Amino acid sequence: MANRMALRFAPLLLLAVASPESSFGSSSHSLKHFSTFVLEPSQGQPHFLILGYVDDQVFIHYDSNGQKMHPRVSWMEEMKKANPQLWDEETEKLRGFQDLNRYKLEFLNSAYNQSEGFHTQQWMYGCEVRSDGSKEGFIKYGYDGRNFLTFNKETLTWVAHQPQAQIIKEHWNDLLETNQEWKSYLEKDCIEWLKLHLDLGKETLLRTEPPVVTMSSRTEVEDGMEMYVCRVDGFYPREIYASWRRDGEEWLKDTFHGSVAPNADGTYHYWLSIWIDPKESSRYWCHVEHDSLQEPLDVALKAPKSNMGFYIGYLIVGLVLACVIVGTLIFFKKRQDTFRAAPGSSRLV
Protein backbone atom coordinates (compact mmCIF):
# COMPACT_ATOMS: atom_id res chain seq x y z
CA MET A 1 0.00 0.00 0.00
CA ALA A 2 2.81 2.35 0.87
CA ASN A 3 4.46 1.75 -2.51
CA ARG A 4 1.31 2.67 -4.39
CA MET A 5 1.14 5.89 -2.42
CA ALA A 6 4.36 7.11 -4.01
CA LEU A 7 2.84 8.45 -7.22
CA ARG A 8 -0.85 8.53 -6.47
CA PHE A 9 -0.75 12.27 -7.26
CA ALA A 10 -1.03 11.59 -11.00
CA PRO A 11 -4.75 10.81 -11.27
CA LEU A 12 -5.72 13.34 -8.61
CA LEU A 13 -4.16 16.12 -10.64
CA LEU A 14 -5.34 14.93 -14.00
CA LEU A 15 -8.87 13.69 -13.54
CA ALA A 16 -10.23 17.18 -13.01
CA VAL A 17 -9.19 18.43 -16.44
CA ALA A 18 -8.56 15.50 -18.76
CA SER A 19 -11.04 14.41 -21.37
CA PRO A 20 -12.67 11.08 -20.50
CA GLU A 21 -12.13 9.93 -24.06
CA SER A 22 -8.43 9.51 -24.69
CA SER A 23 -6.68 7.66 -27.46
CA PHE A 24 -3.47 5.70 -27.42
CA GLY A 25 -2.98 6.24 -31.13
CA SER A 26 -1.47 3.45 -33.20
CA SER A 27 1.88 3.27 -31.37
CA SER A 28 2.91 1.69 -28.09
CA HIS A 29 2.87 3.90 -25.00
CA SER A 30 4.02 3.38 -21.43
CA LEU A 31 3.88 4.91 -17.96
CA LYS A 32 6.83 3.99 -15.74
CA HIS A 33 8.25 5.06 -12.40
CA PHE A 34 11.85 4.60 -11.25
CA SER A 35 13.03 5.16 -7.71
CA THR A 36 16.47 4.71 -6.15
CA PHE A 37 17.60 4.93 -2.54
CA VAL A 38 21.32 5.03 -1.75
CA LEU A 39 23.07 4.62 1.59
CA GLU A 40 26.15 6.82 1.95
CA PRO A 41 26.09 8.36 -1.55
CA SER A 42 28.90 10.52 -2.91
CA GLN A 43 29.05 14.04 -1.54
CA GLY A 44 26.26 16.18 -2.95
CA GLN A 45 24.33 13.26 -4.40
CA PRO A 46 20.79 12.62 -3.09
CA HIS A 47 19.93 9.60 -0.96
CA PHE A 48 16.61 9.22 -2.73
CA LEU A 49 15.46 9.93 -6.28
CA ILE A 50 12.22 9.19 -8.09
CA LEU A 51 11.36 9.87 -11.74
CA GLY A 52 8.11 9.40 -13.63
CA TYR A 53 8.17 8.68 -17.37
CA VAL A 54 5.50 8.78 -20.06
CA ASP A 55 7.06 6.90 -22.95
CA ASP A 56 10.67 8.16 -22.89
CA GLN A 57 9.85 11.58 -21.43
CA VAL A 58 10.35 12.48 -17.77
CA PHE A 59 7.25 14.23 -16.45
CA ILE A 60 8.04 14.52 -12.70
CA HIS A 61 11.17 14.55 -10.55
CA TYR A 62 11.76 14.35 -6.80
CA ASP A 63 14.96 13.94 -4.81
CA SER A 64 15.91 14.03 -1.15
CA ASN A 65 18.14 17.10 -1.51
CA GLY A 66 15.36 19.47 -2.48
CA GLN A 67 12.50 17.35 -1.07
CA LYS A 68 10.11 18.88 -3.58
CA MET A 69 8.26 17.35 -6.48
CA HIS A 70 9.04 19.17 -9.72
CA PRO A 71 7.14 19.04 -13.04
CA ARG A 72 9.37 18.36 -16.02
CA VAL A 73 6.88 18.94 -18.83
CA SER A 74 4.51 21.79 -19.64
CA TRP A 75 1.26 19.97 -18.92
CA MET A 76 2.43 19.03 -15.41
CA GLU A 77 3.51 22.62 -14.80
CA GLU A 78 -0.05 23.67 -15.57
CA MET A 79 -1.35 21.09 -13.10
CA LYS A 80 0.93 22.41 -10.39
CA LYS A 81 -0.29 25.98 -10.97
CA ALA A 82 -3.93 24.87 -10.94
CA ASN A 83 -3.58 22.68 -7.80
CA PRO A 84 -0.74 24.06 -5.60
CA GLN A 85 -2.16 22.70 -2.33
CA LEU A 86 -2.74 19.23 -3.75
CA TRP A 87 0.75 19.27 -5.25
CA ASP A 88 2.21 20.01 -1.79
CA GLU A 89 0.19 17.16 -0.28
CA GLU A 90 1.54 14.69 -2.83
CA THR A 91 5.07 15.97 -2.26
CA GLU A 92 4.61 15.14 1.42
CA LYS A 93 3.63 11.60 0.48
CA LEU A 94 6.88 11.23 -1.47
CA ARG A 95 8.81 12.28 1.63
CA GLY A 96 7.07 9.46 3.47
CA PHE A 97 7.98 7.06 0.67
CA GLN A 98 11.57 8.24 0.98
CA ASP A 99 11.62 7.34 4.70
CA LEU A 100 10.04 3.96 3.94
CA ASN A 101 12.77 3.14 1.44
CA ARG A 102 15.46 4.07 3.93
CA TYR A 103 13.93 1.68 6.46
CA LYS A 104 13.75 -1.16 3.93
CA LEU A 105 17.35 -0.72 2.82
CA GLU A 106 18.64 -0.58 6.40
CA PHE A 107 16.61 -3.73 7.16
CA LEU A 108 18.25 -5.58 4.25
CA ASN A 109 21.73 -4.58 5.39
CA SER A 110 20.96 -5.79 8.89
CA ALA A 111 19.33 -9.03 7.73
CA TYR A 112 22.33 -9.94 5.58
CA ASN A 113 24.93 -8.77 8.13
CA GLN A 114 26.39 -6.31 5.66
CA SER A 115 28.70 -3.56 6.80
CA GLU A 116 27.88 0.07 6.33
CA GLY A 117 28.81 1.59 3.00
CA PHE A 118 27.42 2.13 -0.44
CA HIS A 119 24.23 0.11 -0.98
CA THR A 120 21.30 0.74 -3.32
CA GLN A 121 17.65 -0.15 -3.58
CA GLN A 122 15.64 0.35 -6.78
CA TRP A 123 11.99 0.11 -7.74
CA MET A 124 10.70 0.07 -11.30
CA TYR A 125 7.00 -0.30 -11.94
CA GLY A 126 4.47 0.69 -14.56
CA CYS A 127 2.42 -0.39 -17.53
CA GLU A 128 2.50 -0.45 -21.31
CA VAL A 129 -0.15 -0.53 -24.02
CA ARG A 130 1.34 -1.96 -27.21
CA SER A 131 0.43 -1.05 -30.78
CA ASP A 132 -1.55 -4.29 -31.16
CA GLY A 133 -3.74 -3.37 -28.16
CA SER A 134 -2.16 -5.83 -25.71
CA LYS A 135 -1.30 -4.58 -22.21
CA GLU A 136 1.48 -5.34 -19.79
CA GLY A 137 2.17 -4.37 -16.17
CA PHE A 138 5.33 -4.97 -14.18
CA ILE A 139 7.05 -4.40 -10.84
CA LYS A 140 10.76 -5.01 -10.36
CA TYR A 141 12.73 -4.60 -7.17
CA GLY A 142 16.52 -4.37 -7.25
CA TYR A 143 19.16 -4.49 -4.54
CA ASP A 144 22.78 -3.39 -5.03
CA GLY A 145 22.37 -3.27 -8.78
CA ARG A 146 20.96 -6.78 -9.17
CA ASN A 147 17.46 -7.94 -10.01
CA PHE A 148 16.14 -9.04 -6.63
CA LEU A 149 12.37 -9.62 -6.84
CA THR A 150 9.65 -9.32 -9.48
CA PHE A 151 5.89 -9.41 -9.09
CA ASN A 152 3.70 -11.97 -10.89
CA LYS A 153 0.31 -10.29 -11.09
CA GLU A 154 -1.38 -13.42 -12.38
CA THR A 155 -0.51 -15.50 -9.29
CA LEU A 156 -0.27 -12.52 -6.88
CA THR A 157 3.17 -13.74 -5.80
CA TRP A 158 6.74 -12.48 -5.82
CA VAL A 159 9.58 -14.26 -7.62
CA ALA A 160 13.03 -14.27 -5.98
CA HIS A 161 16.04 -13.86 -8.28
CA GLN A 162 18.70 -14.08 -5.56
CA PRO A 163 19.03 -16.55 -2.65
CA GLN A 164 18.97 -13.66 -0.19
CA ALA A 165 15.55 -12.60 -1.50
CA GLN A 166 13.77 -15.73 -0.25
CA ILE A 167 13.01 -14.28 3.19
CA ILE A 168 11.43 -11.12 1.79
CA LYS A 169 9.60 -13.11 -0.89
CA GLU A 170 7.88 -15.30 1.73
CA HIS A 171 6.89 -12.24 3.74
CA TRP A 172 5.50 -10.31 0.76
CA ASN A 173 3.61 -13.34 -0.54
CA ASP A 174 1.62 -13.31 2.71
CA LEU A 175 0.44 -9.73 2.04
CA LEU A 176 -2.54 -10.83 -0.05
CA GLU A 177 -4.45 -7.54 0.17
CA THR A 178 -1.43 -5.48 -0.85
CA ASN A 179 -0.66 -7.82 -3.76
CA GLN A 180 -4.25 -7.57 -4.97
CA GLU A 181 -3.94 -3.78 -4.88
CA TRP A 182 -0.79 -3.99 -6.97
CA LYS A 183 -2.61 -6.15 -9.52
CA SER A 184 -5.45 -3.64 -9.70
CA TYR A 185 -2.97 -0.81 -10.13
CA LEU A 186 -1.10 -2.53 -12.96
CA GLU A 187 -4.17 -3.69 -14.87
CA LYS A 188 -6.50 -0.73 -14.37
CA ASP A 189 -5.27 2.38 -12.58
CA CYS A 190 -1.95 2.62 -14.39
CA ILE A 191 -3.64 2.23 -17.78
CA GLU A 192 -6.14 4.96 -16.98
CA TRP A 193 -3.41 7.29 -15.77
CA LEU A 194 -1.48 6.67 -18.97
CA LYS A 195 -4.54 7.64 -21.01
CA LEU A 196 -4.88 10.84 -19.02
CA HIS A 197 -1.25 11.80 -19.50
CA LEU A 198 -1.46 11.13 -23.22
CA ASP A 199 -4.58 13.29 -23.43
CA LEU A 200 -2.98 16.25 -21.65
CA GLY A 201 0.36 15.92 -23.42
CA LYS A 202 -1.03 14.90 -26.80
CA GLU A 203 0.64 17.77 -28.66
CA THR A 204 3.98 16.23 -27.75
CA LEU A 205 3.28 12.57 -27.00
CA LEU A 206 0.89 11.84 -29.86
CA ARG A 207 2.63 13.89 -32.54
CA THR A 208 4.25 12.29 -35.56
CA GLU A 209 7.49 13.29 -37.27
CA PRO A 210 8.33 11.55 -40.57
CA PRO A 211 11.73 9.89 -41.01
CA VAL A 212 14.39 11.20 -43.36
CA VAL A 213 16.13 8.33 -45.17
CA THR A 214 19.63 8.70 -46.61
CA MET A 215 22.04 6.22 -48.17
CA SER A 216 25.79 6.04 -47.88
CA SER A 217 28.58 3.60 -48.68
CA ARG A 218 31.65 2.83 -46.65
CA THR A 219 35.12 2.16 -47.91
CA GLU A 220 35.27 -1.29 -46.35
CA VAL A 221 35.64 -3.89 -49.08
CA GLU A 222 35.93 -7.60 -48.41
CA ASP A 223 36.12 -10.28 -51.13
CA GLY A 224 34.59 -7.87 -53.62
CA MET A 225 31.69 -7.03 -51.28
CA GLU A 226 31.03 -3.47 -50.15
CA MET A 227 29.09 -2.14 -47.14
CA TYR A 228 26.13 0.20 -47.64
CA VAL A 229 24.25 1.99 -44.85
CA CYS A 230 20.63 3.17 -44.74
CA ARG A 231 20.20 5.94 -42.16
CA VAL A 232 16.76 6.81 -40.83
CA ASP A 233 16.62 10.04 -38.83
CA GLY A 234 14.29 12.57 -37.20
CA PHE A 235 11.24 10.37 -36.63
CA TYR A 236 8.67 10.27 -33.80
CA PRO A 237 7.19 8.18 -32.20
CA ARG A 238 9.96 5.72 -31.46
CA GLU A 239 8.48 2.63 -33.09
CA ILE A 240 9.72 2.05 -36.62
CA TYR A 241 10.19 -0.85 -39.01
CA ALA A 242 13.02 -0.81 -41.53
CA SER A 243 14.50 -3.58 -43.65
CA TRP A 244 16.52 -4.26 -46.77
CA ARG A 245 14.66 -5.47 -49.87
CA ARG A 246 16.19 -7.27 -52.84
CA ASP A 247 14.08 -7.55 -55.97
CA GLY A 248 11.09 -6.53 -53.85
CA GLU A 249 11.55 -9.24 -51.19
CA GLU A 250 12.86 -8.78 -47.66
CA TRP A 251 16.56 -9.64 -47.56
CA LEU A 252 18.23 -10.66 -44.28
CA LYS A 253 21.55 -12.08 -45.42
CA ASP A 254 24.63 -10.04 -44.46
CA THR A 255 22.49 -7.33 -42.85
CA PHE A 256 23.08 -5.55 -39.55
CA HIS A 257 20.86 -3.27 -37.48
CA GLY A 258 21.60 -0.59 -34.90
CA SER A 259 19.36 0.35 -31.98
CA VAL A 260 16.77 3.09 -32.07
CA ALA A 261 18.41 6.01 -30.27
CA PRO A 262 17.17 9.48 -29.22
CA ASN A 263 18.17 12.79 -30.77
CA ALA A 264 18.58 16.00 -28.78
CA ASP A 265 15.28 17.38 -30.16
CA GLY A 266 13.22 14.44 -28.87
CA THR A 267 13.10 12.55 -32.17
CA TYR A 268 14.93 9.29 -32.90
CA HIS A 269 17.42 7.84 -35.34
CA TYR A 270 18.22 4.35 -36.58
CA TRP A 271 20.50 2.65 -39.09
CA LEU A 272 20.83 -0.64 -40.92
CA SER A 273 23.68 -1.86 -43.13
CA ILE A 274 24.25 -4.54 -45.72
CA TRP A 275 27.20 -6.19 -47.50
CA ILE A 276 26.62 -6.66 -51.23
CA ASP A 277 28.36 -6.88 -54.57
CA PRO A 278 28.33 -3.24 -55.75
CA LYS A 279 27.60 -4.44 -59.28
CA GLU A 280 24.18 -5.61 -58.01
CA SER A 281 23.32 -2.46 -56.06
CA SER A 282 20.36 -1.65 -58.33
CA ARG A 283 18.56 -4.72 -56.96
CA TYR A 284 18.45 -3.40 -53.37
CA TRP A 285 16.12 -0.98 -51.58
CA CYS A 286 15.79 0.33 -48.02
CA HIS A 287 12.18 -0.18 -46.89
CA VAL A 288 10.81 1.98 -44.03
CA GLU A 289 7.40 1.89 -42.29
CA HIS A 290 6.33 4.45 -39.68
CA ASP A 291 3.12 5.92 -38.24
CA SER A 292 3.89 9.29 -39.82
CA LEU A 293 3.90 7.81 -43.33
CA GLN A 294 0.75 7.17 -45.32
CA GLU A 295 2.72 4.75 -47.47
CA PRO A 296 6.00 2.93 -46.73
CA LEU A 297 9.19 4.53 -48.01
CA ASP A 298 11.29 2.57 -50.50
CA VAL A 299 14.64 4.21 -51.20
CA ALA A 300 16.78 2.70 -53.95
CA LEU A 301 20.35 1.79 -53.21
CA LYS A 302 22.56 3.33 -55.87
CA ALA A 303 26.22 2.61 -56.25
CA PRO A 304 28.42 5.68 -55.80
CA LYS A 305 29.29 7.38 -59.08
CA SER A 306 32.68 6.57 -60.55
CA ASN A 307 35.45 9.05 -59.85
CA MET A 308 36.99 8.44 -63.28
CA GLY A 309 35.44 11.59 -64.76
CA PHE A 310 36.83 13.64 -61.90
CA TYR A 311 40.31 12.26 -62.40
CA ILE A 312 40.17 12.78 -66.20
CA GLY A 313 39.02 16.37 -65.72
CA TYR A 314 41.72 16.95 -63.16
CA LEU A 315 44.32 15.55 -65.60
CA ILE A 316 43.11 17.79 -68.46
CA VAL A 317 43.25 20.88 -66.26
CA GLY A 318 46.75 19.92 -65.20
CA LEU A 319 47.88 19.48 -68.80
CA VAL A 320 46.40 22.83 -69.84
CA LEU A 321 48.08 24.55 -66.92
CA ALA A 322 51.41 22.92 -67.80
CA CYS A 323 51.07 24.10 -71.42
CA VAL A 324 50.39 27.67 -70.27
CA ILE A 325 53.45 27.64 -68.01
CA VAL A 326 55.69 26.23 -70.76
CA GLY A 327 54.36 28.76 -73.30
CA THR A 328 55.00 31.61 -70.92
CA LEU A 329 58.57 30.48 -70.33
CA ILE A 330 59.22 30.21 -74.09
CA PHE A 331 57.78 33.70 -74.65
CA PHE A 332 60.02 35.31 -72.03
CA LYS A 333 63.02 33.35 -73.29
CA LYS A 334 62.53 34.78 -76.80
CA ARG A 335 62.14 38.34 -75.43
CA GLN A 336 65.34 37.94 -73.45
CA ASP A 337 67.23 36.81 -76.60
CA THR A 338 65.88 39.82 -78.52
CA PHE A 339 67.15 42.28 -75.85
CA ARG A 340 70.56 40.68 -75.89
CA ALA A 341 70.78 40.98 -79.75
CA ALA A 342 70.01 44.79 -79.65
CA PRO A 343 71.82 46.44 -76.74
CA GLY A 344 70.76 49.92 -77.79
CA SER A 345 67.20 49.01 -77.24
CA SER A 346 67.75 48.51 -73.55
CA ARG A 347 67.17 52.28 -72.84
CA LEU A 348 63.62 52.73 -71.57
CA VAL A 349 62.68 56.15 -73.12
Task: Walk me through what this model shows.
There is one protein chain. This protein has 349 residues and is an alpha+beta fold. The chain is 34% helix and 32% strand. The chain has helices at residues 2-5, 9-14, 74-82, 84-111, 166-173, 176-200, 202-205, 308-341; strands spanning 29-39, 48-54, 57-63, 69-71, 119-129, 135-143, 146-152, 157-160, 212-222, 225-235, 241-246, 249-250, 255-257, 261-262, 268-276, 284-289, 297-300. The strands form 3 sheets. Strands 4-3-2-1-5-6-7-8 form an 8-stranded antiparallel β-sheet. Strands 9, 10, 13, 14 and 15 form a 5-stranded antiparallel β-sheet that branches. The chain has a 4-stranded antiparallel β-sheet with strand order 12-11-16-17, with no helix packed on it. A hairpin with a 2-residue loop joins strand 2 (48-54) and strand 3. The N and C termini lie far apart (111 Å).
Produce a short descriptive summary.
The protein is of the alpha+beta class.
Features:
single chain; 349 residues; alpha+beta; 17 strands; 32% strand; disordered N terminus; disordered C terminus
